[in-house]
Structure formats: C-alpha cells, structure tokens
Amino acid sequence: MFDLAHALYQPYQNTAPWKTPYDREQATWARMTSTISAGAAIRVTAGTVAGAGIAGATVAAASPVGLLGPFAPAAVIGCLD
Predict the structure, then answer these.
(1) The model scores a pTM over 0.85
(2) Using CA atoms in the order 69, 73, 76, 81, what is the torsion angle rounded to 10 degrees?
C-alpha cells in the first residue's frame, strides 16, 4: 500500500558532477544550445524534403502545359472542326 507515512526519498545521485554553480550553468547552456541546434537541423531537413516535393510536383504539373501549351488551342479547334 502506498501512503505518505512510508514514503522515502532516495536521490539517484548524492552529489552533482558540477563543482560550482557556474559549471552547472555552463552545462545547462550547452545542453540548451545543442537541443536548439538539433531542432533547427531537423526543421531544415524536413523543410528541404517538403520543398523538393512541392517543387517536383509543380514542375511535373507545369511540364505538360509548357510543352503542349502552344498546340492546345489548335488541337481543340481541330477536334471541334
């Protein structure tokens, strides 16, 4: 049974690896900057992949229009005639 009377706090580490608060702050800052950098790298990669997909779809959709654009009116008139 779980109750507060029998609760016991046992820390994972008795001592921190930092000798001073400044060392702790430096480690925290380094962790934060590496996390932000990793997030930015993932975001850039995802944006590049998505952008390439959009650009590829645009080129694929525009190619028939670009290739057949001048001939389309003549083809339509020829079919209607």
Answers:
(1) no
(2) -150
For the chain, 81 residues long, give each residue's pLDDT as a single digit of tens: 678 888 887 766 656 777 888 888 898 899 999 999 998 888 888 888 877 777 777 766 666 655 555 555 655 666 665
**CA–CA distance, 74 with 64 (Å, rounded to integer):** 15
Cβ neighbours of 43 (radius 10 Å): 10
What does the domain layout of the chain look like in residue ranges? 4-80
3-state secondary structure of 13: coil
φ/ψ region of 16 (left if φ > 0, alpha if ψ in -120 to 50, else beta) reads beta
27 Cβ neighbours under 8 A, 6+ residues apart: 18
**Residue that has been written with the tokens 């995802």 in this structure:** 46
